[in-house]
UniProtKB/TrEMBL annotation:
Keyword flag Transmembrane: yes
Membrane topology of the entry: Multi-pass membrane protein
Protein name listed in UniProt: Major facilitator superfamily (MFS) profile domain-containing protein
Coiled-coil ranges (or none): none
Transmembrane segments: 162-185, 191-210, 271-289, 309-333, 354-375, 381-405, 417-437, 449-467
Major subcellular location class: membrane
GO molecular function: transmembrane transporter activity
GO cellular component: plasma membrane
Pfam families for the chain: MFS_1 (PF07690)
UniProt source species: Pycnoporus cinnabarinus (Cinnabar-red polypore)
Residue ranges, annotated region (Disordered): 1-32
Length: 480
């Protein structure tokens, strides 16, 4: 049987499952597609084992693999192959998550070095802090983490693990101003970029030594159609330089599909709407990061007149806030998922993820307004710290919810989804550095941050309730 025939069989089997809900007699174990059911039922998954008996019948339910505590059906269903990443040990899985989180830190960590050096660079090159801000406000994509999380972990653990990965790239632009700010106050700013380069090299070395390929072609009749080399060293080298991927390319999507995949998914209404919302939520927070150094270092009455040490210390605020957001998001996302599964009779609906946004938005408003008032009215440092911290907690909580929702809606498109969310938050964020400081200097920081918060809340009211009301219809019509 050819690979195309296999794909057609998989598609046909999954489509037949979609049509069968409570008709037990029509769902025999031999007809049920254990491999790709979760993809073809994007956004609606039967999670409770008892509900699985009702929807799929006893014959299928008995064959479904469950979580260790027996309370949840595993999606995707692990194969019997011990090398299936879903079957790896917890240590092996979490090591890969740790590595990809370290890698996610690199781009914005390097970009944030310019924040720590902003005054030193302006003095060195006899220019303004605004010019330096514009030149150093850049990044590159952090996409791979969503792939790896979904390769390694079942559905009910993915939001928790995404929380860790997103924490990496959200905290990264604050780590470098915090760490490098103390360094540039003592030695040359050139050392800060040297240390950033060293960190990137260390991460590359760790990946080369301990990173593993998590892609597993579970849809193929034989997920490993090409025999592995007997030498583990040879296999690692071939995997690192792309030989393994080149050999497997004949069994995967064509270049044509890969090139147009993002264009094929970005116009879907439920995805485009949530991308626009997240672009503003995340974007304005990046604007805070890239411009706060200017507000903090500018002498009164324009700013707080902090020393280089003071500015560096201030960036400890968002670092602590992101950790708090990770802890809150970890438990709240799990609670929302479990509560909604019980409320929906053992079935998970993707739009349930968006309830977390209702927690994030009040925090976002309070944080931005307080931060703007602090800069404009020169409130105490405590007020500034609280405003900045609260806003970053909100961003952390909201971003994880958006990633999880989009992944649930398009489970076959993790790479494209991750790339598009990254593009949205990057376009929304790194453009803010160009206008935020001049706007605040002209009309006051309270107006600047207040308007930004108002834009975010307006989009929230337009997008999130609409998706919760109509998301099921949009998924049914427009999902892939």
């Amino acid at each position: 049987m050819s690979i195309n025939d296999t794909k057609n069989d998989v598609s046909h089997s999954a489509e037949s499952v979609d049509e069968k809900t409570h008709d037990n007699s029509s769902t025999a174990g031999s007809e049920f597609d254990f491999v790709s059911y979760h993809e073809h039922n994007a956004g609606r998954l039967v999670v409770d084992p008892e509900e699985a008996k009702i929807e799929f019948g006893e014959a299928v339910a008995k064959k479904l693999k469950l979580s260790k505590d027996g309370t949840k059906v595993l999606w995707p269903q692990p194969t019997d192959d011990p090398e299936d990443p879903q079957n790896w040990t917890d240590f092996r899985k979490n090591l890969q998550l740790f590595l990809v989180t370290l890698a996610a830190i690199v781009p914005d960590f390097d970009s944030g070095i310019g924040i720590a050096d902003i005054f030193a660079l302006a003095t060195q090159y006899n220019t303004t802090t605004g010019h330096i801000n514009n030149l150093t406000s850049k990044t590159c994509p952090q996409v791979t983490g969503l792939y790896i999380v979904t390769d390694l972990f079942p559905f009910h653990l993915q939001a928790r693990k995404l929380n860790i990965w997103t924490m990496g790239f959200i905290i990264s632009p604050f780590l470098s101003p915090f760490m490098m700010g103390f360094i540039v106050a003592r030695i040359s700013w050139r050392w800060t970029y040297g240390i950033g380069t060293m960190y990137g090299g260390i991460v590359v070395g760790l990946i080369a030594l301990f990173g593993e390929e998590t892609m597993y072609d579970r849809k193929l009749p034989d997920p490993r159609p090409i025999p592995l080399p007997k030498s583990r060293l040879r296999y690692r080298i071939e995997t690192l330089i792309g030989i393994t991927g080149w050999r497997m390319a004949q069994f995967r999507e064509t270049w044509t599909k890969a090139i147009f995949a993002c264009a094929n998914v970005v116009w879907r209404p439920h995805l485009f709407a949530i991308l626009l919302f997240e672009a503003m939520v995340f974007g304005f927070s990046i604007g805070i990061n890239t411009t706060n150094a200017v507000f903090l270092g500018t002498p009164p009455p324009g700013g707080y007149g902090f020393s280089q040490f003071g500015i560096a210390g201030a960036y400890g605020t968002p670092i602590v806030a992101v950790f708090i957001g990770e802890i809150l998001g970890r438990y709240f996302n799990d609670w929302v998922m479990n509560f909604c599964i019980r409320r929906n009779g053992g079935v998970f609906i993707a739009e349930s993820r968006l309830w977390t946004c209702y927690i994030a938005m009040p925090l976002y408003i309070c944080g931005f307004v307080l931060l703007g008032a602090s800069f404009q009215n020169h409130l105490s440092v405590g007020a500034l710290v609280m405003g900045w911290g609260i806003s970053e907690v909100a961003v952390m909580i909201n971003t994880v919810a958006v990633y999880a929702y989009c992944n649930d809606c398009f489970p076959r498109m993790q790479g494209e989804i991750s790339a598009l969310i990254n593009l949205a938050r990057t376009l929304g964020g790194f453009s803010v550095a160009y206008f935020q400081v001049p706007w605040a200097m002209k009309n006051g920081a309270l107006q600047t941050f207040g308007v930004e918060a108002a834009i975010v809340v307006g989009l929230f009211l337009l997008v999130v309730p609409t998706l919760q009301l109509k998301g099921g219809l949009l998924r049914e019509r427009y999902s892939l």
